[in-house]
Structures are given as C-alpha cells and as structure tokens.
Design goal:
- The protein has ten helices and seven strands.
- With about 260 residues, it is α/β, with parallel strands linked by helices.
- It has a single domain (about 5-255), classed as Rossmann fold.
- The protein has a seven-stranded mixed β-sheet with strand order 1-3-2-4-5-6-7, with helices on both faces.
- Helix 8 links the parallel strand 6 and strand 7.
- Helix 4 packs antiparallel against helix 5 (about 155-165).
- The N and C termini lie far apart (about 35 Å).
C-alpha cells in the first residue's frame, strides 16, 4: 500500500514530492480551501513499499500513483509534481491523460536520460555517495541549499526532517530514475497543456533551465519570488495563490 496524507474536500489536488523529501513537506498546502489535498510518499519513502520493479522508470512510479488514487477513490486530479515529482507527474499525464485536470511542474528535475553515459553515471554515483553519508549528514549540509538565502529556520527544519527520514533503498531507486529517465519522452507523449513554476532563487534546478522547459512546449511559466528550490515552502503565499487560481479555473471548466 502506498502511503499518503489527505485533508479537506473539493477538487482533488495530488502533490508529488522530490527526491530528498516526502509527503510531510507539503504541510503548508494541506489546508487549502476548495481542494481535497493528497500528498503521497512515493514508493520507498515514508511507509510506502518499494516498487516490485528493479531499475524503475517514471512510468512505473506513475502506475503506483494511479493505484494509490484508485484506492483513494479519485478518478481525476489536479497534479503538482515538484522536482523529481515533476518527472513522475509527466509520466502519469502521458499514461493517464484523462485523469489529469491540470498539470503543474514545479522546480522540475528533467532527468539525465538523454545525457552522455558518463554524465548519467556521475549523477548516479554522486547520489549514491550522498546516501552513503546518511540522512543526518545530508540534512546538516544540504537542507538550507534547497531554500532561498535567509530562509525561515522552520522551513530549513522541514527540509532537514525530510532528509533524516529518507530510506536508503527508496532514495537510491529514485536516484536511478533521475539519472536514467527523461521528462521530454513523457511530455512529448502527453501532448496536453501544463504549467511550469520555479523559485526565482532555485539553486538546484536553475530557473533558466526550468523556464526553458516551458518555452520548449509553449506553456506558461510562473516565477515564484523569494523562493529557492522548495518554492512551496519558501513562498507558500504565492504558490498557494496559484493553486487557488487553478481551483477556480477547474471549477469554471466543470460548470461550462
């Protein structure tokens, strides 16, 4: 059973976390009015079991997400993928386009599947080395880098707590996915509309590269001010405002 948290009622909003995070990091979005908010712990994170597939791609994670939504009784959802979650969200949209009310790729990790083999290997090895040091070291050395300079101490603590909770096998499976899959294979297959958001001070997935993703497909791009990589924590006011706008748009579409 894939673990997830939920709160509220209304239009389903499915939140997908990044590689060094988890469902708990979305605490500032859980009480959004007009949404039934669901935040999953992807396979290998939190209480969620590992995928049965070894060397899984984003499509395998998307299948697990579809099964989770089925269990939650959710057919269609607004889907927000953050960082590596954006890669999984793109795969879900490609495989199950009829289930996506709106797709948001935030601070998107685009994957290294199209990169040279030595670069893919380097990405994989560096993540493997990070995990070998353990979640505690990662929390101490990397947590603040996911936020903008001068971030609130409680936001750094949220990121650090997520890193401390990482399960090595889950993190390494996700690192393999990051190193070997590619978002464009999925988005090309999807062919539908989506939005791209990015923290203006994102030092992990650089804003110009994330904006390039939007430009490549002619999709709208939103820069989130005073926000680093974890833009939904750093500037939840703007992030949540954008989600509420989507809520209204979906409602309008449903009533027309």
């Amino acid at each position: 059973m894939t673990g997830f948290r939920e709160q509220g009622s209304g239009i389903p909003l499915m939140l997908l976390h990044g590689i060094s995070s988890g469902a708990a990091s979305w605490h500032k979005q859980m009480a959004l009015k007009g949404f039934r908010v669901l935040a999953w712990d992807m396979p290998g994170y939190g209480e969620s079991p590992m995928l049965a597939v070894e060397r899984a791609n984003a499509g395998d994670y998307a299948d697990a997400l579809a099964a989770m939504l089925d269990r939650a009784g959710v057919w269609q959802t607004v889907l927000v993928g953050h960082s590596l979650g954006a890669l999984v969200a793109s795969a879900f949209a490609a495989k199950f386009p009829e289930r996506v009310l709106n797709l948001v790729l935030a601070d998107a990790a685009q994957g290294y599947g199209q990169a040279a083999p030595e670069q893919r290997e380097q990405v994989w090895r560096s993540r493997e080395q990070q995990m070998a040091l353990g979640g505690e070291i990662m929390a101490q050395t990397r947590a603040a880098k996911l936020l903008h300079p001068g971030a609130h101490a409680e936001d750094i603590a949220t990121v650090a707590a997520g890193m401390r909770r990482l399960r090595p096998e889950g993190y390494l499976a996700a690192a393999w996915l990051l190193a070997h899959d590619d978002i464009h294979g999925w988005l090309t297959r999807y062919g539908g509309r989506f939005e791209v958001w990015c923290g203006e001070q994102d030092a992990i997935t650089q804003p110009e590269l994330v904006q390039g993703l939007a430009l490549r497909y002619g999709m709208p791009f939103t820069a989130i001010p005073l926000a680093g990589h974890a833009s939904y924590l750093d500037n939840d006011a703007v992030f949540n405002q954008e989600l509420l706008r989507i809520n209204e748009e979906v409602r309008d579409e449903c009533t027309n």
